[in-house]
Design goal:
It is a single chain. The protein is α+β, with helices and mostly antiparallel strands. 36% of the residues lie in helices and 17% in strands. Strands 5-6-8-7 form a four-stranded antiparallel beta sheet, with helices on both faces. A hairpin with a 2-residue loop joins β3 and β4. Residues 96-277 form the Nitroreductase domain. It comes from Conoideocrella luteorostrata. InterPro entries: Nitroreductase (IPR029479), Nitroreductase-like (IPR000415), Nitroreductase/BluB (IPR050627).
Length: 303
C-alpha cells in the first residue's frame, strides 16, 4: 500500500486514456458522508482508476504525482504542498499556450465543471459575475462548426479593425505562426494560407468549443472581469493537461453563434474557446510567442 499515491479529489490531471483501465491501482478519495464531514476525516480506498470511477471521483491521470494534505491528530499536515503550489502556479502560467492542433479524444465534463468552478472565484465589479459561457461538444459541436465554416467561406468576419499602432504585433505573430517553426507556409502559397486561416472556424479541430459573452449594457470594467475569469479558467484547464486557444475571429459571425448556441440578442460576444487534448508533438503547438519587457509596460513610482 505504501507504493500507492494518494490523489486528492480536488486535484485533477490530464486525460482519461482510451483504455478502460490504467495498469496501476491508486488511492482514491471515497465520497464523504455526513459523519465523515463532522469528524473531519477523509477515507481513501484502493481501486483501479477507470473511466467510470474517474467520472465519479474526479481523479486525474496517475502519471502526475502531487503532494497531499492529510489529518494527523485533527491537524492538517501538508506534504510538499507549500512550495509545490507556488512552483506549480508559475509552471502552469508558462505551460499555457495557444493550442491549434488537438486530439479527437473527448473531454470529460467533470474536468470542465471543476475548472469552471475555480474560475467562478474570479473577482468582479460589485460581484456581478458577468461572464456567460456556452459550451458545445459531440453532435452540437459538429453542427456549430459546420454552420460557422460555411458562413466563413462566403465572407470575412465582421470584427473591429486593429488600430495602426498595434499592427506590428499582428505582423510579428503572423511571421512567427506561419514561418518555418510554425505552419511553414510560404507567402505566395495563398491556398495553404487560406486553409490554415479557415481552421479558426473549425475551432482548430478541438472536441469542445465554447463562446464567452457579456450583457451588452455593461461597462469596459466588467469586460475586464471576464478576462480574469477566462485566465483562471484556462489555467485550471492547463493544470489538468487540457489545451486551449482563444479565438476572436469566430465572433465576427455573431449571428451564427447566437443562433447555434442559443444566445440572447442582448449578449455581446467576446471570444470563442477551443478546448481539448493537445497534440504535444506538433510543432505549431510548441511555439512560444515573445512578450514585451516589463519596462515597456509597467511603471513603478516611488516619489
Amino acid at each position: 500500500m505504501s507504493s500507492n499515491i494518494i490523489i486528492p479529489i480536488e486535484v485533477v490531471y490530464h486525460r482519461i486514456t482510451k483504455s478502460s483501465q490504467f495498469t496501476s491501482n491508486f488511492l482514491i478519495p471515497e465520497r464523504l458522508g455526513p459523519s465523515d464531514h463532522r469528524s473531519g476525516s477523509t477515507t481513501y480506498i484502493s481501486q483501479p482508476i477507470t473511466k467510470e470511477n474517474f467520472a465519479m471521483n474526479g481523479v486525474g491521470h496517475p502519471d502526475v504525482q502531487h503532494p497531499t494534505t492529510r489529518l494527523v491528530r485533527g491537524t492538517q499536515v501538508t506534504d510538499q504542498r507549500e512550495h509545490t503550489r507556488r512552483d506549480s502556479f508559475e509552471s502552469y502560467v508558462h505551460l499555457r499556450r495557444s493550442v491549434r492542433f488537438f486530439k479527437s479524444d473527448a473531454v470529460p465534463r467533470p474536468l470542465l465543471q471543476m475548472s469552471l468552478q475555480l474560475a467562478q472565484r474570479a473577482p468582479s465589479n460589485s460581484n456581478i459575475q458577468p461572464w456567460r459561457v456556452r459550451i458545445a461538444s459531440s453532435n452540437a459541436r459538429d453542427r456549430i462548426v459546420g454552420s460557422l465554416h460555411a458562413e466563413a467561406l462566403k465572407y470575412g468576419p465582421s470584427i473591429p479593425p486593429l488600430p495602426k499602432h498595434f499592427h506590428r504585433f499582428r505582423s510579428e505573430l503572423g511571421s512567427f505562426l506561419y514561418g518555418k517553426d510554425g505552419y511553414n507556409i510560404a507567402r505566395e502559397d495563398k491556398t495553404s494560407l487560406e486553409q490554415a486561416r479557415m481552421r479558426n472556424y473549425e475551432f482548430f479541430g478541438a472536441p469542445v468549443c465554447a463562446v464567452v459573452s457579456i450583457d451588452e449594457t455593461l461597462a469596459p470594467v466588467d469586460v475586464m472581469t471576464v478576462g480574469m475569469f477566462l485566465q483562471t479558467f484556462i489555467l485550471a484547464l492547463a493544470e489538468k493537461g487540457l489545451g486551449t486557444c482563444l479565438l476572436v475571429s469566430v465572433t465576427g459571425y455573431s449571428h451564427v453563434l447566437k443562433r447555434e448556441f442559443g444566445i440572447d440578442e442582448n449578449q455581446h460576444l467576446l471570444c470563442g474557446i477551443a478546448i481539448g487534448w493537445p497534440m504535444e508533438d506538433h510543432k505549431v503547438n510548441n511555439l512560444r510567442t515573445p512578450r514585451e519587457s516589463l519596462d515597456q509596460q509597467v511603471t513603478f513610482i516611488e516619489e
